[in-house]
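Inverse folding, one chain.
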């Protein structure tokens, strides 16, 4: 059994912490997130608060990291995970986006909407990495979160990150840290680091919209 480490952010109400952060440049030093950046780059899997629920975050260009994430979630390898991107420019490296789709994306991003798009035949890499893992061969679900920590992390790491919820497959996603900790306790595979930001504001996982067909299709409300 692997040992997971928990980093507690105080005060426990994460919303209070975010309100106290005035300058984005001070965000990571204030919350000791330089360590999170380093962990992501080292291929570790981290539980982090997001704008919806607690998420399992890893470098989506790191094969071993994504494989570990699937083991932690007990997720079928054939079931893709959504991907966080820092901006539409990064999204265009991962998906085929026409003008109408880009207009739609600008209307819902950043926000709680994951959009499924077609993947390009010619795929460009990130930082020398030519592949992205944990996604379907033909389509990909992308999202720009509306969350200062996640947005800054994406900016600093400058790579697409996994955006799946921090729960075991078949179990509910949660905004409550105790429920998250309980699910991973005593499991063979565990997250390397858990950022305990207390209970998050009530929220559901993101809405999922499929834009791969002729008409927009809502897969999850």
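Residues assigned per position:
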């Amino acid at each position: 059994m692997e040992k997971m480490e928990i980093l507690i952010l105080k005060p426990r109400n994460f919303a209070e912490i975010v309100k106290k952060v005035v300058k984005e440049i001070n965000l990571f030093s204030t919350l000791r997130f330089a360590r999170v950046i380093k962990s992501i780059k080292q291929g570790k899997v981290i539980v982090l608060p997001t704008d919806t629920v607690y998420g399992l975050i890893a470098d989506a260009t790191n094969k071993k990291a994504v494989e570990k994430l699937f083991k932690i979630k007990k997720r079928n390898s054939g079931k893709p995970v959504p991907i966080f991107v820092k901006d539409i420019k990064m999204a265009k490296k991962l998906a085929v986006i026409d003008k109408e789709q880009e207009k739609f994306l600008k209307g819902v991003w950043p926000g709680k909407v994951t959009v499924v798009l077609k993947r390009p035949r010619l795929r460009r890499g990130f930082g020398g990495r030519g592949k992205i893992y944990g996604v379907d061969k033909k389509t990909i679900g992308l999202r720009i979160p509306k969350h200062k920590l996640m947005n800054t992390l994406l900016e600093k790491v400058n790579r697409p990150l996994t955006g799946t919820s921090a729960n075991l497959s078949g179990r509910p996603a949660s905004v409550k840290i105790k429920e998250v900790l309980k699910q991973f306790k005593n499991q063979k595979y565990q997250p390397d680091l858990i950022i305990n930001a207390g209970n998050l504001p009530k929220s559901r996982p993101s809405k999922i919209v499929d834009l791969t067909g002729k008409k927009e299709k809502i897969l999850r409300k």
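Residues 67 and 125 are 19 Å apart (CA to CA). The chain has eight helices and eleven strands.
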